[in-house]
Specification:
The complex is a heterodimer.
Chain A lengths: L1 H9 L1 H36 L20 H8 L2 H32 L5 H12 L3 H14 L7 H8 L3 H12 L3 H9 L4 H30 L2 H6 L6 H6 L11 H35 L2
Helix pairs in contact in A: 1-2, 2-13, 3-13, 4-7, 4-8, 4-10, 8-10, 10-13
Chain B lengths: L1 H54 L19 H7 L2 H13 L2 H16 L6 H13 L2 H11 L5 H8 L11 H29 L3 H9 L4 H12 L1 H16 L3 H7 L10 H10 L3 H30 L2
Classes of the chains: A mainly alpha, B mainly alpha.
Amino acid sequence: MTKTLNRNKKHTTMTTSTTIFNIISYIILIVGSFAMIAPLVWMLSTALKEDQFSIYNTGLFSELYFDNFFKVFKTIPLVEGFKNSLIVAVPSIVIGSLVSAMAAYAFAKIDFKFKNILFLLLLGVIMIPFPVIMIPQYYIFTDLDWIGTLLPLIIPKMLGNIMMIFFLKQFMENIPNSLIESAKIDGANHFRIFLSVILPLVRPALAAQMILWFMGVWNDYLAPNLFSAATPTLPVVIASLVSFTDTRTETHLNMAASIISTVPVVVVFAIFQRQIIDSVMLSGSKE
Amino acid sequence: MQSIDMSTVKIKMGKSQNRKNRKNKENLVGYIFILPVFLGILFFIAYPLVYSFISTFKSWNGLIPLGDAPFVKFEMYKRVLGDRAFWDSLLTTIITLIGIPIGMFLSMGLAILLNRGLKGTHTFRVIFYLPAIVSITAIVILWRGMLAVDGPLNAVIGIFGINPKNWLGEPTYARIALIGMLVWKGLGVSTLLYIAGLQGISDSYTEAAKLDGANGFQIFWKITFPLLKPTHFFMVVTGVINGMQLYIEPDLLLNGGPANSTRTVLIYLFQRFDQRLISQASVVAWVLALIVFIATALQFYVNSRSERP
């Protein structure tokens, strides 16, 4: 970037063409941003309309009827959805991340037999498409009496996340062995080293992965709808508002409910946007 | 002398014994650390995988134990592969993959603009990423409103003199609307991936081309575009894997309709599942997995061939 700036100072002709290109860039980016945001803005405006029949024939933000955001709590089981989504997301991600970090540590820093074969096995497992295993999973959960509860969403996640293991393993491989060796000389075993040396070192990477996982779990619909529809998570509650037969669905209230359901991820995103964007960019460069 | 020799031998033996013990302990610790993950794989992936595979050779309705269901050899495969609706759903799924090149083209363009060090770059990144953080169910509620006949999308295209379209009611427009929604939602992530790809390209290539008198267009086609190949490859591979499993969006937005125009393979699978034709649903899943596997392997093959000098 500084290079470009220096060059621009030297060549004035280049500066004009660069300026023109910059202006064109801004025009395209602003038009693009408009296309990305406009639907979301319209959603907010619609959620603030008092009457569903005025949705399409009144202007943006012509009404600011905030009552909708309170009304929906009475008509739609949003509180239950929130509660269920939190029960699914928080304990499973905390424990699942710890379990994944332990496995990543073992693959990165502990020498054990068949390590490479077992790691290849993990690679194979992520290639299995979910549709192949979801039907038998449904019947296994039926046998366990888990269908309709949140357990099918919680227990498998507690046993780790393979993508997270890959990511953390790469991260841990960069930690110098000397750190681990010196801790060993001080008499620490692997559990101790993992807890007091490795975990603090990988905390930023682990946190970024946990945030992305949280957003994925919070928005997940397929498995919650298949296994736990009787104890609906938030996306299942919101999806139940979509009706293909009832033409009198209250679009403005549905929009308000959808916006409320999005608040937690938006808050998380607002706080951690830099880490989230960096981790997403990193996810592609791994290949 | 003799006694000294003996003692070194003893020490050596003790050391190797010690090392062996330590090695065993190290093995054990390693296995303990990975145990939960492999228990999860065993119970929730490996076991269902075998279960699913066996069920494709039986005629099973899910109401009786799988072991009691009659063994029918390849009958269920014949039924699925002989059903026109299955092939139609496969074609529909493949048609939605058009969204991949469209999304790649748009996100690559945006990434190039966002990688020029302009002011406000981070804000634009956040804006383009926003639809990706909203749950698909909320997105669908939003788009069903946007696409209504008297909705805002028709109002906007009306400004350009285009007649209103029945986006949710006519097969062709429904497919266009579905692909449009997928591209819109995915644009943020793919733009970020292309920015990461661009940042991996050394400035020295473009600098050298500039010295040789290449213009911006030539630099893009001869240097930037080919050097982004790993990103293109990643986008196509993940796009095909996810795109072939498209389900939630067409199911919630259009219920597979109108006239089955957005019935993807997975919607077809769930229709079989709901009709308690569990074995047929499993066959669909395995055929889909095979197609995805072959498509992915093919892409890796083509990719590795084109890398040879």
